[in-house]
Amino acid sequence: MADLQLMRELRQESNRKIVLLVLDGLGGLPVESGGPTELEAARSPNLDRLASEGTLGRTIPIRRGITPGSGPAHLALFGYDPLQFDVGRGVLEASGIGITVAKGDVASRGNFCTLDSEGRIIDRRAGRIPSEQALPLVERMSEIQIPGVEVEARHVREYRLAVVMRGEGLEPDIEDTDPQQTGVLPFPARARTPGSQQTAGFFNQWIAEARVRLADQPKANGLTLRGFSTDPDLPQFPDIYGLRAACVAVYPMYRGVSRLVGMQVKDFPGDQPEDEFHVAASIWDEFDFFFIHIKKTDSKGEDGDFAGKAAIIEAVDRALPTLLDLNPDVMCVTGDHSTPARMRIHSWHPVPTLLWAPDTVLPDDQTTFGDRACAQGGLGTFLAADLMPLLMAHAGRLAKYGA
Amino acid sequence: MADLQLMRELRQESNRKIVLLVLDGLGGLPVESGGPTELEAARSPNLDRLASEGTLGRTIPIRRGITPGSGPAHLALFGYDPLQFDVGRGVLEASGIGITVAKGDVASRGNFCTLDSEGRIIDRRAGRIPSEQALPLVERMSEIQIPGVEVEARHVREYRLAVVMRGEGLEPDIEDTDPQQTGVLPFPARARTPGSQQTAGFFNQWIAEARVRLADQPKANGLTLRGFSTDPDLPQFPDIYGLRAACVAVYPMYRGVSRLVGMQVKDFPGDQPEDEFHVAASIWDEFDFFFIHIKKTDSKGEDGDFAGKAAIIEAVDRALPTLLDLNPDVMCVTGDHSTPARMRIHSWHPVPTLLWAPDTVLPDDQTTFGDRACAQGGLGTFLAADLMPLLMAHAGRLAKYGA
Questions:
Q1: CATH ID of A2-86+234-394, from 3.40.50.1100, 3.30.450.20, 1.20.1250.40, 3.40.720.10
Q2: A3 class by beta-carbon count within 10 Å (0-12 exposed, 13-18 middle, 19+ buried)
Q3: Tens-place pLDDT, residues B128-145
Q4: What mean pLDDT is predicted for residues B373-382?
Q5: N or C: which end of chain A has fewer CB within 10 A?
């Protein structure tokens, strides 16, 4: 909390605007000895120009060697030490689709899954059924009544849903029911503390009712719940930094974490970089800070699709003039973590970071935006939670500390 | 403790093996303007190949500018913040020769010294008498009886011994009796707290008895004690990281600190790098983590022997294929601190660090293992206590933090 308090004390008014463009899972690895990373392989003349005029560095999302989930990684980019502020996946998911999770409510994230005749999981994501198949199933779920508690079940995307309970005496210290493997039964919801016993019981009743309503389904005949959590009561981003902050993101989880820190989350049609940049343009005068999130770099990384990930970076680069034409004062391009296509998973590798601020940046000698160029960059390698103070400073939005 | 707790929470099973090869006092300085450091001067083609395939960086043992002793420097390499975990030299020395120091015991490290006819120290190390001369003298010491306390005196190496007291109400807050200079009397053991008064008294009685038994000696006619300390009750390395950990080291102190953190300390004949690497080979299947310690780089540095220190690095390099033939998954070559031959003493300079992990490392542009190459390396300059999380990550032994 000390660092956020410092921001509150030092922040000052300015009309300079900040763009934080996050390419999810940006950091990568070479697939062959001596080869380039995804970012190095991508042809990205606009990003290279920004790199050349600005300065580079690398952010460590949590701590050296620690691989982050997306929630804590984004909190860090927003300036919150993720080891201090713990936000559950259930709350993130629910918030992402606009469900309010108040203090005392318990939210969880659900996945439809496929069970065999003995109830063992044979597909943890129910064949990744599309949204149009999942939506009517979630509607069936929403009819379930559990005495003593109010339940809200809402569809998220594809095979995913959010389940939130509201009532007296609920507590969220409950283990995931997803065993994270196939060939075994889902776990029941098991309380980690005596105070959470009753809540775990409510969720188990709900799961049993849901199973009855899904019994006729070929793929989505079961479900698992995880990330049981309640409102983390985070300090609010606009209060901390004095910024009118907008979130432009397609995926629910990123919208959720932005909403939890008090950003205004924008709805818009389309899901391409160009679409997202146009949204920023349409609200340019109303905000000081624009968090723009590109998901597909991470998705391609998790698919092991090196060329696909590089292509997404190229698509962002092509769309970038739309954003640059707005004349942001400070522009940062980074990732929340690395997702090397070679590893097909989030990793701990420090994340390439580009800071461009024509009026205030000390340029370094780097001329391209790449993982290795960033390792040699003028910003050095630093904790992601220290990025926001840097952006604030370059926007002239922090007063001097001490006389 | 927070970071060790994080390791406990995130560690996961893997069959990947980690080698931590520590060349004591590795970091150096040029002896002439424009010249190379010891590591840069050494011809080391194997290390250079690892540097070229892996990534470089530098570790700061304690904090910037702080010169470490060997005990805290090694704790840092094992992931323990040495400012948080304080281990006395007495305990390190005693543990190194296999003496168990339990909670409430008080251990100290002793040096034989030469006193003049008035009891002033004229040689703080008794002419560095060899082990065969010191051993029978320590046997005489071991006959000393002090009423009210049990005493164990054991020879360590050359002019050094360990003295451990066991009994009720002992406390270790006692000043060293070694005045760290010649021409003066040794200090008595002086308690820093009222609770340690009685223990200091026991040690003073013991020193007086020892002086009587050494009176006939031409060189070793006195002794000093320092590093009074008790069991620091350290969290155990295998529990923290989930690693079956072996220590391969010749010198007692390094074996001692390894034993204190719960590593299995191996006995073996010989004291050359090749001998140590063969030990690692002989126990390869039984362990996940191998701490291998090379002492002589530090000894040569303390002797001011630049060429000698470089020659030890070359000897390690020549023996390295024995280790590499085992196909470690993660290999780190570093030092516990710097010992520039030019300074003849430990120093605060960040320590050259090489990380090689063919499957998971992001290679940097460096092609040789040297002090300056490491300063430009892709890992940057970081606290030594952050090294273990990096090694764990590169071995696939840490799960994701948060969803």
A1: 3.40.720.10
A2: middle
A3: 999 999 999 999 999 999
A4: 96
A5: C
CB contact under 8 A, A347 and B360: yes
Sign of CA dihedral B211, B216, B221, B223: negative
pLDDT at B37: 98
* DSSP reduced 3-state for A219: coil
Alpha carbon separation from B10 to A205, A318, B304, B379 (Å, rounded): 31, 39, 44, 22
Count of CB atoms situated within 10 Å of the CB of A198: 16
Say whether B376 and A380 touch across the interface (CB within 8 A).
Answer: no
Residue A92, pLDDT score? 87
- B245 touching chain A per CB within 8 A: no
Q: Look at the block and give the residue holding tokens 């370094």.
A: A364
Decide if A83 and B6 are in contact by the 8 Å CB cutoff: yes
CATH 3.40.720.10 boundaries in chain A: 2-86+234-394
So what's the ipTM on this one? Answer: 0.87
pTM summary value: 0.89
The pLDDT value recorded for residue A100 is: 87
A-chain residues within 8 Å CB-CB of B378? Answer: 372, 375
pLDDT of residue B1: 43
Q: Is A368 exposed, middle or buried (0-12, 13-18, 19+ CB in 10 A)?
A: middle
Let me know if A133 is exposed, middle or buried by CB neighbors in 10 A (0-12, 13-18, 19+): middle
Q: Please write the tens of the pLDDT for every residue from B322-358.
A: 999 999 999 999 999 999 999 999 999 999 999 999 9
Q: pLDDT value at position A386?
A: 97
Going A145 to A146 to A152 to A158, the CA torsion angle's sign is negative
Question: Do residues A228 and A107 lie in contact, with contact meaning Cβ atoms separated by under 8 Å?
Answer: yes
Q: How far apart are CA B291 and CA B255, in angstroms?
A: 10
* CATH 3.30.70 describes domain B92-229: yes
Mean pLDDT of chain B: 96
Residue A239: the pLDDT is 97
| The pairing of beta strand A330-334 with beta strand A18-23 | parallel
Ranges under pLDDT 70 in chain A: 1-2
DSSP code, position B219: S
Residues B389, A349: C-beta atoms closer than 8 Å: no
Question: And the tokens for A25?
Answer: 């899972």
Residues of A within 8 A of B398 (CB-CB) are 65-67, 348
